[in-house]
Amino acid sequence: MLKSFFYICYMKKKSIILLGIIMAVSFFGLIILQAKYMKLTADMRSEQFDESVKKSLYGVVRMLEEEETLQYLNKNLTTPSNRTKITTSSNFNFDPNGIARLIDTTKKYSCTRVKPKVFISMKHGSNTIQESSRILQNKLRERYIHERALLDDILIRLLSESYVRPIEERIDFQQVNEILDKELDFNGLNLPHYFSVIDKDGKELYKSKGFDEEGENDSEYYTQILFPNDPNPQSNYLRVYFPTKNNYIRSSLTLLIPSVIFTILLLFTFIYAMIIISRQKRLSEMRTDFMNNMTHELKTPVSSISLAAQMLNDKSVPKTPAMIEQLSGVVSSETKRLTQQIEKVLQMSIFEKESSALKLIEMDINDMIINISSNFAIKVENTGGTIETDLDAEDCYALVDEIHFTNIIYNLMDNALKYSKGPLNLHLKTWNEKNNLLISVEDNGIGIKKSDQKRIFDKFYRVSTGNVHNVKGFGLGLAYVKKVVTDHKGTIRVESELNKGTKFIISIPLKK
Question: Which of 34-43, 62-71, 339-348, 486-495 is predicted most confidently?
């Protein structure tokens, strides 16, 4: 796994970009498919819900019609003195002679149809008996059809009287609630619900208890006309509202949501891995440049020292006091330069630690800035430039590491000197903001491009000036500055415009 990771780090940039595009398209495609599947599932669940509610409301209306019919028949088709109640539990039975009888479950009373007397002659044989039976059956059938037609006429006449009655007299609202509960439960919708009865103008005739919430629009209500089979329906409607419908539909997606979450986590993990790979690749390239640059920087003083040593060992070269002094000066200056380069390389160790071992002491930052500017003034004046200081910080004491903090100011000023084309004008300033002490180092140098400003604090990164070695360094200076400022619990930012100059602003907390 580790070997594969390093292999990816050394892949070509085009290959990494292509791999990233393919993986990104795959992940986004998977997420889109899952989103569409979730939407499809939610739509199907919603359609099933709507269908079950409509089926339940139709069942409620059908039962209300049947109940009204039974009640009206019980009221109008029985005599006051000897009344047989017709219910759904009435039983039909047949006597041995095939005559139908309606048996009341509550009272022993039967309504018996008189059997017609038919005399069959036995003199004509079996064919005559069969013919007589057939004639009898036809007569019974005709009588049944005639009586059924009469009964239908009577029922239509009686029931037509109930159509004009108000809806409050035709149904019992408490019974509607019970029937609605049973129908919804039968169709698998055991959910909280409220119902109301309204007329064709939307006027509310009845509202169930607790029906305080209302839907945001009419689509959240389910409506069913009452007594739709009336000759002239009065357009009264049963309206039902489910406050937890959305939660019921979302419950069907509980198994899909974790898969989407895991897919998104994998996507972010992949993106993070690609960012790390990209950074590692860029760091690897910068390290390669650093090694090449360091080889060049160290080779130059070593070559000078080696050349001076050869001249001292060459017996053909006269050893005059002036020559010996010149060669010793070359050896001394190049040795000092080599030592400085080695110290810069050793500064790399600070980046391998999460927090540097700082020796914090209370210091007057204004006095530190004065001392640093005084020591650096000679270098600036040699370029024909100037150093200005504005020490406006009234509260100027902070806990800092004297060596490291002095080094970061020197590094910023040294960078300004390196990247200046003409006389350098440096401006150092201090001031207070809330509980922080701010220090700015501003120059009139060549400036930094916007594209480089985000990366100048990276290790080994160097702003290109057209020639890699026209400005000496390893690309560690600003990374070192950033590390030290961060370890002081401070921040640093850069403001720069190309060919107009650069300003670095350091903010550190005041001494508490």
Answer: 486-495
118 contacts: CB under 8 Å, gap ≥ 6: 132, 136
Q: SS3 sequence, 192-234?
A: CCEEEEECCCCCEEEECCCCCCCCCCHHHEEEEECCCCCCCCC
At residue 273, the 3 state secondary structure works out as helix
Task: Give 378-402 as a DSSP string.
Answer: HHHHHTT-EEEEEE--SS-EEEEEH
pLDDT one-digit tens code per residue, 415-431? 888 888 878 889 999 99
- Cα of first residue to Cα of last residue in the chain, in angstroms, is 49
**Quick check: 76 and 166 in contact, CB under 8 A?**
no
What is this structure's pTM? 0.43
Burial 485-506 (b: 16+ CB within 10 A, else e): bebbebebeeebeeeebbbbeb
**Of 51, 146, 476, 26, nearest to 286 (Cα)?**
476
Q: How confident is the model at residue 369 (pLDDT cuts 50, 70, 90)?
A: very high
User: Per residue in 436-471, pLDDT tens?
Assistant: 999 999 998 888 888 788 888 877 666 665 444 455
How far is the CA of 456 from the CAs of 97, 184, 448, 480, in angstroms?
112, 69, 9, 11
Nearest C-alpha neighbor of 344 from the set 177, 472, 213: 472
Q: What is the dihedral of CA 206, 211, 212, 213, to 10 degrees?
A: -120
